[in-house]
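Hi F.,

I've been meaning to write this up properly since the lab meeting, where we talked about keeping a consistent format for the predictions we share between groups. The idea is simple: the sequence comes first, exactly as it goes in, then the structure tokens exactly as they come out, then a line or two of notes. No screenshots and no reformatting. I'm using this chain as the first example so we have something concrete to point to.
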Amino acid sequence: MQYRIVPYLYNLIFLFCLIILIKNHKGEVRNATRIDLMKCKLTQMGMEYRGTIAKTAGSIRCQSWYAEEPIHEVSKDISDEDFPERSMKIAKNYCRNPTGDSRGPWCYTLEPSLIDDECDIPLCNFGECKLSGPGADYGGTKQITTSGSKCISWHKHHLEAAKGLKFEDRYFSDRSRRKAENYCRNPTGDVGGPWCYVEEEGFEYFQKEYCDVPFCDDRDCLTFTKNSTNHPILTKLRAASGNTSFWVKLWNPDDEKKVY
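Output, unedited:
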């Protein structure tokens, strides 16, 4: 059995992964998804969110994306393809982010005086691993960076003053800067992954460093980057039992937007 990867999107990072899902005697599939993805978002922007929350952060009900007689006209720039369901009708009046708004999932409201507003969708928390590339969903206790430096507490007042940034609680998978302590996190949605501030001798301000956080799923992955010329062929699958699934992710880092 052969599977050939066809290189046709050179402007994207192409991540091809093979996942082996083994069923137990009850027929239940074991995988690393320990969180109900209908109840949280994986990234700060939440364009992948598929949950059923249908009210804004201010508890105002959302208008249907497919309303026949809407209170607020839906932008003509928004189409079915902008939704994870690939359908405005199926998306109903749920909070979504079809425009890539830096606020995250939002909706048109049923309040005549308020056209649209953001929704309070919590970040997923996958504990000691990450499911997404940026890893905003990481909620583990790693506090050492790739250089071996120890992280500084997110809640330190002088850190915020020095950097001029104030990270809101909602940008943490812990839902709190204080609870995030000095653990590696990604409150900015940085494509480099979870990070933290460290204090280095000789520097006036704290420095930002990345952390080495593993993915939750045990996958064998092939990664193709821009202008890649080598394209391997998979010739053998080692799965004695169970199901074999292929997972493909197309990721363009240039599309990622920071929350600040």
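Notes:
Confidence is low (pLDDT under 50) at residues 1-34, 239-243.
The CA atoms of residues 129 and 214 lie 5 Å apart.

If this format works for you, I'll send the rest the same way.

G.
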